[in-house]
Design brief:
227 residues, two-stranded antiparallel ribbon, two-stranded antiparallel sheet, 11 helices
């Protein structure tokens, strides 16, 4: 009888666990379980790195926007801010393009704030004024309210879903879409269909949103699917 496979869970990472203490196993069994354990750990590590990269970029965007609005010496850098920042920080992967996309990410996805227990979003993009969306938190005393700028904010993929289901590379492709409703559509479809970045880019470039004849009502139906 095969051993029951359990799961070791730690900070969102999963590893298979079988009780080998009371049964005999062949060398092939050993090789197989070592490979399975390694592959599971590697997969969890990649997911953890992707999540951290997404959160890092959103925070970088937050700091840049706040500096641009409130920095004491912001006028000194002006349009050269991102170039000067790249030169000063001097870390692999942190380029002007990264800073630009991070700034866009922060502005376009204010709901990412729900991944933090304390509200830090105080910029105009999160303050100015039509819809207030209450975002759930594990601690009800730390609930977050985000004020969206347009009615399209009614169609939001939650911050938790974004960070857990999409890599920043996926999000970066979706941010190239101007229409917020279309972005929501691609977010939902990408999650549901588990598109690679290449597949997502193809669907966007071939205007799947338009070809599918998407309307507000059709997109609203997407929101009924669990995220």
């Amino acid at each position: 009888m095969a051993n029951e496979v359990k799961r070791y869970l730690h900070d969102g990472m999963k590893l298979p666990f079988e009780d080998w203490s009371k049964t005999l196993h062949s060398f092939n069994d050993l090789a197989s379980i070592v490979q399975t354990t390694h592959d599971a750990a590697q997969s969890s590590a990649v997911k953890a790195i992707n999540r951290m990269q997404t959160m890092r970029n959103w925070l970088i965007g937050y700091y840049i926007v706040e500096f641009e609005q409130h920095g004491k010496d912001r006028a000194e850098y002006g349009t050269q801010l991102l170039k000067k920042l790249e030169e000063r920080v001097d870390r692999k992967g942190l380029t002007r393009n990264t800073f630009q996309s991070s700034r866009n990410f922060y502005r376009m996805y204010p709901q990412m704030i729900e991944n933090f227990k304390n509200r830090i979003c105080t910029t105009v993009s999160c303050k100015s004024t039509e819809d207030i969306i209450s975002l759930p938190s594990e601690d009800t005393s730390m609930r977050t309210d985000i004020i969206c700028t347009t009615a399209s904010c009614k169609f939001l993929t939650s911050g938790e879903t974004l960070v857990s289901k999409l890599s920043f590379s996926h999000i970066n492709e979706i941010m190239k879409v101007d229409d917020p409703l279309a972005r929501y559509f691609y977010e939902q479809e990408c999650i549901k269909c588990t598109w690679s970045v290449r597949e997502l880019r193809h669907q966007i470039s071939t205007n799947l949103y338009i070809r599918a004849g998407i309307s507000v009502c059709a997109v609203r139906s997407l929101s009924r699917f669990p995220q």
